[in-house]
Structure formats: C-alpha cells, structure tokens
Amino acid sequence: MAGTAGVFTEKGMRKSLNDQPGCLLMSGIARDELTGRIDAIIYRSRGPDSFYVSEHACSAARGRQINTSLRNLAREVRKDVGLGLYALPRYRRLHTFVTLARVTVHLKDGYRSQWFPCRVDEVEDYRGRRSFEASCPTNYLHESGKTIKEAMNRLGDVIEARYKGEGLHDLMREIPKCPILATIDVSPDQQSRWGTAVITPGQGSYTASIPGSQVEASSRDPYQALLNAEQKLAGQGTTIAPLSDEPVFCVADVPLALFDGTHLHRFLISISFHENDGSSFYVARAPQAGDLSIQSQSFDDALAGIRDAIALECREKTLAEITEMLKVPPFLATVRLPRT
What we know:
Number of helices: 6
Structural class: alpha+beta
Largest sheet: 8 strands, antiparallel
Distance between the termini: 32 Å
Strand content: 35-45%
Strand order of the largest sheet: 9-8-7-6-18-11-12-13
Number of domains: 3
Mean pLDDT: 85
Helix content: 10-25%
Low-confidence stretches: 1-34
Number of strands: 18
C-alpha cells in the first residue's frame, strides 16, 4: 500500500508559502511541535536489487530496509521544507487508524462491492480544534469529518462517485494499489513513543487492545475506546518491548485454499520494528485471522511469514466462514506508549 491526496500527499505547491495561514516553514529542523509527525507512504521496488521508496508530499527517499527508508525521508523532508519547496501544515497529527471500507460502486457493468484500504488521522490545529482526515491510497481521494464515522462515510461517498459509470477494468486496474502506510516524526526531539493497538467492533461497542500487554478498554466509539486503553496503559505503567520506529500498516491480498476452492481475500496487517536486549526483529500481526503474529529478522520475511500463516490458518475453511470472519474489519491504530 502506501499516497492519498490530502492525507498522504500535499494538495500541491503553494504560490507564496510564507503568506499561507496555518503553515509553517522550517529551516533544517522543525521549529514548532505542531509539525513533528507527518504521514508517509512506502513502495517496494521489484527485482534482485530491491529497495524501499518512501514519500511525503514532493519529498522522497529510499533505503535497503524499510526503517532506513523512513529515516532518510525524515531528513529529506527537513531539507526540502527548509529550502521552501513546501510548507508543513500547522497541526499536530495524533492517532492514526487504518481499516478497510466496503463500498458498493455503480459501474457501467453493474454494481460491485469492493474493499478499499482507508487511513484516518486524528489532527489538532494550533487552536486546539480536532478533526479526522480520511483518505484512500488506492485512488488518492480524501475527506474529513468531526468523527471517524463521519469522515469515513464521506470518503465512501466520494469513492462511490469516483467510479460511477466506470468500467470494471478501470476499477481492477486501481485495486492492487495498496502501498504501506506510515507516520514518521521529523522533529529533532521526539516527544512520544507509539505502538500498535487493535480496535475490534462488537455488539454496539468497540474494544481496544494493545498487543504485548493485558490492557483492554471499550466504548461505543472506536476513538474513545483507544483513548481509554491508552489511559489505562499509562495508569498501570505497563511495559512493552521498546519500539525503534512506529508501526506501519498494509493490506495483504492472500490466496486461500478453501473447502470451496481457491479465493483471494484482503487482510489488514501491522508490522513493528522492535529492539530489545541488543536484538532487533520485526513483528507482523493479522488480527482478522485469529490474531496471528509472526516474528522475523527482516520486514520482507515478516510480511511473507504472516501471509503464509494466514493461508494456513484459513486452510479448508468454507467460503461462508471466511466471509463471516472478514465481515466487519477492525481498526489498526497507533497508541501512545509510556516513556521508558
């Protein structure tokens, strides 16, 4: 997976950056805490000499490893903003939510129900006003709202309008575009540590859990459920394996050998880079497939391993069982961790 218009990329170059309200230019480093965390998208090159390319607005960087690519991107963003190529918005990017949105599109070939990856960012402007920005990396569409639900509903309407009257082949040409989604901190002094949370829908409520801890919290709103879990985690002083970098999120299309035949299904994946007691490793999680997790020494191996684990977990299940299992996807989210 990986840029959408609005959230994943800036809307365009501004004619007079210094005169734009709500924007802040940097000279090499961020001069305002409101500019610390930014969104990024990551693509993996193909071939024997593969590498990762990460992007934000018109800045791009590459690296052999995904975390190296993101660190290089942070330096590139500081340089480009310092040169005046673009300005960073004067708002704080707080929690990030990633899920799948099911949208029924009216094609000229008929109606089709399709899962689209969706990223929702909680943002706070310099006046303390909070909102949610939803975007889809498949088609670069974006919308905003006062709640996660409102932002996603508006995004769904925009996606539906985008494909109305299009041919099935036009839709299928875009569906495979699922870059890796990330958030990085470009400020010189990172104020917070962030980990992964899984927010699972239930009967009229959502339950937020934090892998690696016993913390769970519920609410009728997914955002509030996450805040409740975050507060409980901070209050208990729970320790989790320290993270070197924030988690990244992606979508994996996995062929499943089911009882009814082979079918391709889409799963949400989170992957985190850990450093603990002198060792480093990646942990990939697939909460839709029985909360599977895989640990590996490289990002590629972690992603390949979780795909294999999903295929094994779902082997010989019926299509009806898989459909029910994936009926209501969870949210993968960033959660603020206690500082060590």
